[in-house]
Amino acid sequence: YYTKVKMAEANVVLLDFWPSSYGMRVKIALAEKGITYECKQEDFQAKSSLLLETNPVHKMIPVLIHNGKPICESLNIVQYIDEAWNHKPSLLPSDLYKRSQARFWGDYIDKNVYNSVKRVWTGKGKEQEEHNKQFIECLKTLEDELANKPYFGGEDFGYVDVALVPFTSWFYTVETFGKLSIEEECPKLVAWAKRCMQKDSVATSLPHPHKIYAFALQYKQRHGLE
Amino acid sequence: YYTKVKMAEANVVLLDFWPSSYGMRVKIALAEKGITYECKQEDFQAKSSLLLETNPVHKMIPVLIHNGKPICESLNIVQYIDEAWNHKPSLLPSDLYKRSQARFWGDYIDKNVYNSVKRVWTGKGKEQEEHNKQFIECLKTLEDELANKPYFGGEDFGYVDVALVPFTSWFYTVETFGKLSIEEECPKLVAWAKRCMQKDSVATSLPHPHKIYAFALQYKQRHGLE
């Protein structure tokens, strides 16, 4: 059995791009399950043929390649990891109704957070205020759902935490460019983010906020968004 | 046991709006599982307090209320139904990898089909050609995935079929307003749609294409899109 697991682990490859919150989700899930894997960084100016072959529909990271078979879309990958390595505690709740609630919030995050974050740090001029407002509204919806629980699913770190926490590595960038304080607006959410960072799986998967900021600054310069 | 199932069934309520492809998905899944339920039609000019209470985040149909607990977002509901009523064959494959593929395509349909369909039938002027082109590209991606299989998952009607087939009730509307022939462009997909319509669960859940057309015509008149 031990040999079998080791072999399986040797066949896990992640196609990633380090500032991507979607890639971070997969890294957290793999770390939660204790899976070792090979991580390949993609270059967006010149996507690898491996990326184009394994994700021909979207041509986007992350892609998880398990025993030669590619899985795409980050929350789909997280669910696959959760089901494939079930020797460790499950990220999704076992209760059917709670599971449907977790998927609902994962989906909410997918549909709202990335765009809100990006609009704030790339915004300029009079649109900035509207972008900031929408971003805070989105966070407050999530904070209301978190309420006084330690994690979104309750006592244990799980699926919705994995879905959301990578975006907190962008908070410093968002606050600096957007000239806003997330802690003032959403103190419970910031406390939750700090709680998540106490976990090795999260701390080792998220880049330093200053590194993200340097990336965002470069991105804005390259795209004339200063 | 029989009494218990009957009681559970009595507590299934669907908040719906009949032309919605998302609502049709839920109806098909419930029919596949043989679940009787109460269907309440929502009025979009005056949303019911039940809808606002059960889906406070999106305020959108479909909502499935099972024993008083609301579940939102159509594919999330389909997954919940599949897991909650497991006395009938599963809509999602039991194989982990095939399940991840099914979720990938469900997600692709969610992200692409509704918008493509709507752009074609509401389009006008010189944008029409571009909308038609994008719509056909989207369908061809799906047709490539279907290839020569009877259903998306293989031999049996399943999750991806449930996700996609409701949109085929809009094809007549799309063809009429967009002045295009889906059968010419995607013959395999149209053959698949006809195959799905042989199933009672699908045939009883999809409105007649002419009824959808009359709805779309009214919608365009009301929104000045003629």
UniProtKB/TrEMBL annotation, chains A, B:
Q: Where in the cell is it found?
A: Cytoplasm, Cytosol
**Residues of the GST C-terminal domain:** 95-215
InterPro entries assigned to the protein according to its UniProt record, in alphabetical order: Glutathione-S-Trfase_C-like, Glutathione-S-Trfase_C_sf, Glutathione_S-Trfase, Glutathione_S-Trfase_N, GST_C_Tau, Omega/Tau-like, Thioredoxin-like_sf
Q: EC number(s)?
A: 2.5.1.18
- What is a single cellular component term in the Gene Ontology annotation? cytosol
Gene3D superfamilies associated with the record: 1.20.1050.10, Glutaredoxin
Q: Which GO molecular function entries does the Swiss-Prot or TrEMBL record give?
A: glutathione transferase activity
Q: Enzyme class, one word? A: transferase
Record's keyword annotation contains Cytoplasm: yes
Positions of the GST N-terminal domain:
10-89
According to UniProt, the reaction catalysed is: RX + glutathione = an S-substituted glutathione + a halide anion + H(+)
What broad class describes the main subcellular location of this protein?
cytoplasm
Coiled coil ranges (UniProt) are none
Q: Name the UniProt key words of this record, in alphabetical order.
A: Cytoplasm, Transferase
Keyword Transferase part of the UniProt annotation: yes
Q: Name one Pfam family in it.
A: GST_N
Biological process terms from the Gene Ontology for this record are: glutathione metabolic process
The family database entries (PANTHER family) matched by this protein are listed as: GLUTATHIONE S-TRANSFERASE PARA-RELATED (PTHR11260:SF756), GLUTATHIONE S-TRANSFERASE, GST, SUPERFAMILY, GST DOMAIN CONTAINING (PTHR11260)
Q: What does this protein do?
A: Is involved in the conjugation of reduced glutathione to a wide number of exogenous and endogenous hydrophobic electrophiles.
The entry assigns this protein to a family as follows:
Belongs to the GST superfamily.
Return the protein name: Glutathione S-transferase
- Which classification does the entry list for the species? Eukaryota, Viridiplantae, Streptophyta, Embryophyta, Tracheophyta
